[in-house]
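Narrative progress, year one. The postdoctoral researcher (J.K.) led the effort to move from monomer predictions toward full complexes, under supervision of the PI. The following entry was the first complex the group processed end to end, covering 557 residues in total.
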Amino acid sequence: MQLEKSPLPARPASARILLSTPATGNDPLSEPMIIFEDCSYRYPHAGALRPALDKVDLAIGTGELVAVVGANGSGKSTLARMANGLLLPDGGSVRVKGMSTAEPGNLDAIRETVGMVFQNPESQIVANSVEDDIAFGLENIGLPVAEIEERIEEALGVFGLEELRGREPHWLSGGQKQRTVLAGVMALQPGLLVLDEPTSMLDPRSQREFIDYIDSLRRDGTAIIYITHIMREAATADRVVVLSEGRVVADAGPREVFSDEGLLRSAGLDAPLPVRLSRALDAPVALTLEELVG
Amino acid sequence: MKLAGAVIGQYFPGASVVHLLDPRMKILAAFAYAVALFLVGGYPGLILMAAALAAAVAVARIPARWLLRAIKPIVFLAGFTFIFQLFLRGGEVLASIGPLDVYEEGVRHGAFLAARLVLLVLSSAVLTFTTAPVLLTDGFSRLLSPLGKLRLPAYELSLMMSIALRFIPTLLMELDRIIKAQKARGAEPGRGGLVRRARSVLPVMVPLFVLSFRHADELALAMESRCYRGGRGRTVRRRLKLRARDAVFMVIVAVTIAAALLV
Ligand SMILES: Nc1ncnc2c1ncn2[C@@H]1O[C@H](COP(=O)(O)OP(=O)(O)OP(=O)(O)O)[C@@H](O)[C@H]1O
Ligand SMILES: [Mg+2]
C-alpha cells in the first residue's frame, strides 16, 4: 500500500485544534506546564538493574518545544509514561499544571491535558476505522456530538486523512497509521503533547511537514516533549535534553548541546550532519545546512 | 496452513440491501437463525433455512470463494460428525465395511448434523461479510445497552468485541509473517504427522502470543492516555435508525423461521 499522496497540509489559520491553549509564550513567572522533580523509577521485576530513571529534574513551560534524545534504553519512553501518570515515580514527583500525578483524583484532568503518542502506531488504534478512532478520545470525555464531528473533520483535514476516513486500520500503511494516531490525540486539544518517535514511519516529506506542524503548535502555546533519534529534528527544538542511563546529562539549547562532542559521545549520540560538517570545516557550529552555507 | 486467507470477521464491502440493513436487526436475525437451526426437526425445515441463507448470499452478491473460505476451518469437524453418525442403526443397510454396517438412517442423520454445522458457520459469516466492523460494534453495543441498566458492563463488553474485530486481521497478518519467517528457516508448520505437526506449530504460536500480549499492553496504555474511563459519561456518537426495510426484513426472518420449525 502506498503512502497517502496528500501531504500534511499547512494548518489553516482558523483551525481550532490548534488554538487549544492560549498563547502565553514563555513567561518565566507562570507555572510550567509540567515539572519532573527528583523523579526516579525502577521497573518492578527488573532485578538488580539500574533504575530506568534516576533523579530527573525537568520543567517545561507553555509554548516550549523540548527534544529528548538518548541511546536505546536510556529512559526516554519511561519519562514519557511518567508525564501523564501511566507510571508513577518511586521517588520525587511529577506535576502537570500543578497537579501531582500521584493523586488519583487528578488523573482524569491530567490525561485531558497531556496528549500522548507512543512509538508503535499499530497498538494505539482502538476502533475499526480512521474516523471512529479519532472519535474515541472525544467520546470518552463526553463532548457533545456536534463538537465531536467538528473536531473529527478538522483533524482529518490537518492530517490529510479525509479520503481514508472509513478505512479499516489493517488496510493502512505505517505512515497512515501514525497520522491516524496523531489525529486522534490532537483532536483532544492537549496543552502538553508528548511524542515518542512520532515520525519513525513517515516519509521524509511528511516528516518535514510534521515538524512544521509541531512548530506551529508550539507558537500557539502547546508545550511539547519530543522524543527522537533524529538529531536533525532535535536541532529545531528550543531545548535539547540528553538522557543517559536514566539521568539527564544535558539540558540546554541545541547549539550548546550539539557542540559538546565529549557529551554526545558519552551518551552514545552523533551530532546532526551540519554540526559535523562545520566541525570538519573548522567553521563555527551550524545547526542547519543553510546556516553552514550562509 | 494458509491463514492470511482466512476470513474470520472480515467485511465484504457492498451496497446491497443486506449490507444496508440495520446491524442490530442483522445480529438478532443471525442469532435467531442459529437457535432455529438447533430446533429444526427435519430436512424440510433445514432446506428452507438453507434456501433463506442462499437468498441473502445472492442478494449481497457474496462470491462463492468467500463462502468456501468461511467453511474451510470446519470441514474436518463436519466430516467427522458425518462419519460418526454413519453407523447409527435404523432403516436398510446400505453398505458393509468389514464388520460394520452403514445404515440408511445413519447417513441421513449424519448429513443432517453436518449440514446444520455448515449453515451455522455460514450464517455468522454472512453477518460479518455484510456488516462493516464499525457498524457491527455499534449494533452489539446498542443491543447490549439494556445490560447497563442491570449494572453490567455493557459498553466494556461491546468494546471488547470491537477490539477483537480490530485486531483479528492484524494478528492474522502477523501470523502469516511468522510462518513465512519459519519457512525461510526450513520449518514446515502444519505438515507431517500429528506429533510433528503439533511440534512445528509451537514455534509459530509462541511469537504470536507474545505479540498479542504486547499489543494488549500498549493498547491499554494508549486507551488510558486518551481518557478512557469505561462507559460512564461517554458520548454515543452514532445513532442507529430503524427503517422500513428493517421491519420487512424482520418479518421475512420471523416467517421463515416459523415455517422451518412447523414443516
Ligand atoms: N516494562 C519494562 N519492564 C522492565 N524493564 C523495562 C521495561 N520497559 C523498559 N525497561 C527498561 O528500562 C530502561 C529504559 O527503557 P526505555 O524504554 O525508557 O528506553 P528508551 O530510551 O525509550 O529506549 P528506545 O530508544 O529503545 O526507545 C531500559 O533499560 C529498559 O530495558
Ligand atoms: Mg523508547
